[in-house]
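pasting for ref
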Amino acid sequence: MQFIGDLVPPLKMVGGLTLGLSGLAGVFNAVKSGIQGYANAGYKVDTTAKNISTTTRAYQELTGAMIENGSARDAAEGSVSGLYQRANDAVNQRDDGFAALMAQLGIKISKTKEGVADVVKLMDDLNKAMLKESPAKQSVIAQVGGFSPELLSFLRQSTDQVQRLKDQAQRDGLIFSDKDVQNALAFRTQLNHISASWDGLLMKAQVNLGKDPTIQGGLDSISQIMEHGFDTATVGSLMDFNSGGKQADRIREALKDEKFKKTLSWDEKLDLNMGYASGDLIKKLNSFYGPTDKAKLLQQDINGLYVQPPSSVSPAYYNQPGNGNARGIRNNNPGNLRVAPNAVGSDGSFAVFDKAEDGLAAMSRQLQLYGDRGNNTPYGIVHTYAPNSENNTQAYINAITKDTGFGEHEQLDLNDPAVLKRMMTAMIRHENGSQPYSEKDIDSGINASMTDSRWQGLRDPSRLAYQRDQYSDWLMNGPSSTESPSVNQPEKSVEPNINTAGPASSAGGGIDTHKLTAAISTALKDNKSEIEVTFISGRTGERKTVTGTGGKVTTAMPLP
């Protein structure tokens, strides 16, 4: 593997600084922190340039010039990607309004050799066309075209000024060379490998440590003393009279069980009172408690076939009455995004969308972008989404965690539509004072953000492909009716009933009879009592029988 310090000169200093740190962990963390930002930046440039079918240099010249013109990096990147999406839809006859606007300006949207819109040439053509119009007309064009304020400001610059901005971006280091980008990609790959190797090394060390019987025994003894004090079972464990753990717990249970103690001989009672797991006492314990243990195990297996909604998860909010004139609702932008692709304009501060589904899709996409970049906790998301400079960020976080049931620093899977739905409804409620959209509305927005090519700009292609594959059933069929409770549909308690037929679904309440029969077979395998259980299909009359040894029980149970 090439030495990291050889790839980019500044990182030689990082390698030198690590020499004074103690231990491999210090070296690893210092190198990782020194190159992480560079690696991610290069990866993002390469991915976005490929997404919009242009070179990395051409893409960076546009975003770099916009940054030199006063735009934030995210706003510049979002503006270029958003323009590409609208232009590409127009050339593919999916956005007649944008196509008509370009025709009115005398612009023909060119295509790249891949057959998609050439956003670099379009930016040049738009710049020249906008310079012919008055500022008022330019503002109207921007609103109709869905241009961000940053893009409008850039397009108002003279051709010479645009070139000067591009040159300045190069001088200020805002443009990576092709070699820089390739090095960044190599860094990212190597960093992933190093991280994985380091995590694996730590896990192996922990596993090997945990296998040491001396350490295991010591930890168990400490645990017993802390929980039970120096009782009979603990002292017996310390003296190696019993193996500790579950065996010590069973001795404690037996010491309190007068019914069990009546089955013991004088010697066996003495063993029990000493915490000594003799061979005879172990046989009596297994004989007395064994059937009960198996019954509990069977009950756990049966209960495991049902999925109950987590009690700690708060309900999602839908169809709430509220102020329909709230800014986000009025703009069809319930997340109050400032810049987003596929907007039809701006109210001066926030994007305006043609319909609510677009605003919901834009919000869903933004959360997924955070997830792609590793920003996946309510704390991190809200600090980025609603910074302290403009908002009471902590109050926002408190509202989100209260409404969703998620922990402030809990890592969320922002690929999961159920997680997106819960976050979106809580954020919409905080942004607008109420959450007026139906569950179907939210689902449609999330679905569009995952499947409609208009929203794939800036998304990590590999993550997006994985997401579409992972949640293909949800995308095709929609969410299960029992996926999550809402305030309009109170959660109902479902008691397991093995005599009631139900779908064998992990999302529904029903039971999988194949798993049930397997569970019963396992539980009865070593039982000395003979039991026969017969399952009868109410539809076909088919019978399935499970037998053990001893007494006989026959019960009719409908199969699906």
